[in-house]
Inverse folding.
């Protein structure tokens, strides 16, 4: 049985958590603010919506290009120095975004933001995994709560800025946070103890994986809106990713990503759970607002207030994840999370066959938020615990790629179902329940208890 000393987090870990989460918090807040302010920026810069959309798309593509480099850069330069560089670059790019006077200048600055932002999230996960040890579920649970505030606070903050200032301040708000984070990171994040590996850069792997990932994500994102060209881009992405997999199997540890990690059963099962769980989250974020606005005829602002119940549900359960996983085990908590998520979807299926009910919608979203948190954190902790410490940077990169693939793949599949449903929501919500069964099918294969690889 764990003693109090073993279960209590070291004060040094709390300091690292507080600093590290500023990266994903700032990038998530920035994305939320920009998404809801796109039309205002478009009008002020006298552009079209098709061009203004590249403010978002350019950021996401640059992010996808950089993500596969995480493991190599960490091994080469160390996590602390890389984190400081990325935060500096993101903060500088935020200033450039606010200073832009043309749409092309803003899009160019957003590309720089995406390059830095593409590394901040996996770096944060890596540094948390490195210091958490056996308390990974607890650390991720605590660290996730502030990041969840970004989607809740982003729209009101954007509205206040646009009402009392101008759109450049949407980006200038990052400057004090970035400067504070740089100072705190320099003080509290420990230096890398292990000797950095001077392994050669896998240029062929990079030329296959990074463009392949970008084409795949962009092709899937566009496939539900456009035909023709988007499917060609998607096909190119699949071809490049498949070619990288063949290449990586030959190169093994010398490849940009070590695919041998997937031979570890717990890691592969946990990664599959992350894929379907993250995909199901994105599907819910696509389908539920669509139902509230198109089916229940709520205004966007009213729908936003209703949707906040899901974020509240997540925040209620995340801090408890460490204790629940220690007490009941990884598999039990993850499976219970899927069941709770399923129970939270049933009210929407009921309303799709009948009529909208505000109490049912709030209750369902609250349960969905709890269930999503209870599924994702145990599986992520199990994945990190199953790999040797020397492979943590590889594991971080692989997990982040899989997480980003799950969203567009499953959301596009659900969008196809919606397009054939003739404005009816019964079949789409049934399809969402089928996806939850897939999550359960992988979660039930997780280990009963988190097994730590001590090598």
């Amino acid at each position: 049985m764990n003693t109090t000393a073993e279960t209590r987090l070291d004060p040094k870990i709390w300091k690292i958590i507080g600093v590290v989460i500023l990266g994903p918090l700032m990038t998530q807040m920035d994305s939320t603010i920009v998404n809801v302010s796109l039309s205002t920026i478009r009008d002020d810069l006298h552009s079209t919506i098709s061009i203004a959309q590249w403010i978002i798309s350019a950021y996401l593509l640059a992010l996808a290009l950089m993500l596969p480099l995480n493991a190599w850069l960490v091994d080469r330069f160390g996590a602390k120095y890389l984190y400081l560089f990325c935060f500096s670059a993101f903060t500088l790019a935020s200033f450039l975004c606010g200073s832009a006077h043309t749409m092309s200048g803003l899009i160019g600055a957003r590309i720089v933001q995406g390059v830095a932002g593409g590394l901040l999230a996996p770096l944060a996960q890596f540094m948390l995994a490195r210091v958490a040890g056996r308390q990974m579920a607890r650390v991720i649970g605590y660290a996730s709560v502030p990041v969840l505030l970004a989607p809740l606070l982003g729209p009101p903050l954007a509205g206040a800025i646009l009402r009392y200032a101008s759109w450049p301040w949407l980006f200038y708000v990052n400057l004090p946070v970035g400067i504070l984070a740089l100072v705190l990171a320099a003080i509290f994040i420990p230096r890398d103890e292990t000797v950095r590996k001077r392994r050669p850069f896998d240029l062929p792997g990079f030329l296959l994986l990074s463009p392949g990932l970008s084409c795949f994500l962009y092709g899937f994102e566009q496939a539900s809106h456009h035909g023709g060209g988007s499917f060609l881009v998607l096909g190119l992405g699949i071809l490049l990713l498949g070619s990288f997999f063949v290449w990586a199997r030959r190169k093994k540890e010398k490849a940009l990503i070590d695919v041998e990690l997937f031979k570890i059963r717990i890691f592969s099962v946990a990664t599959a759970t992350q894929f379907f769980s993250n995909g199901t989250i994105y599907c819910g974020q696509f389908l539920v607002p669509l139902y509230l606005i198109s089916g229940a005829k709520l205004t966007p602002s009213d729908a936003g207030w209703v949707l906040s119940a899901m974020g509240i549900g997540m925040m209620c359960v995340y801090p408890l994840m460490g204790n629940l996983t220690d007490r009941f085990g990884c598999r039990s908590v993850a499976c219970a999370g899927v069941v709770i998520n399923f129970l939270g979807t049933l009210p929407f299926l009921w309303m799709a066959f009948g009529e909208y009910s505000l109490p049912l919608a709030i209750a369902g979203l609250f349960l969905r938020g709890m269930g999503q948190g209870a599924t994702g954190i145990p599986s992520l902790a199990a994945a990190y615990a199953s790999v040797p410490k020397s492979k943590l940077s590889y594991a971080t990169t692989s997990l982040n790629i899989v997480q980003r693939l799950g969203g567009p793949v499953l959301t596009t599949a659900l969008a196809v179902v919606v397009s054939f449903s003739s404005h009816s929501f019964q079949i789409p919500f049934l399809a969402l329940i089928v996806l939850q069964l897939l999550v359960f099918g992988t979660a039930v294969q997780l280990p009963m208890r988190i097994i730590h690889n001590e090598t």
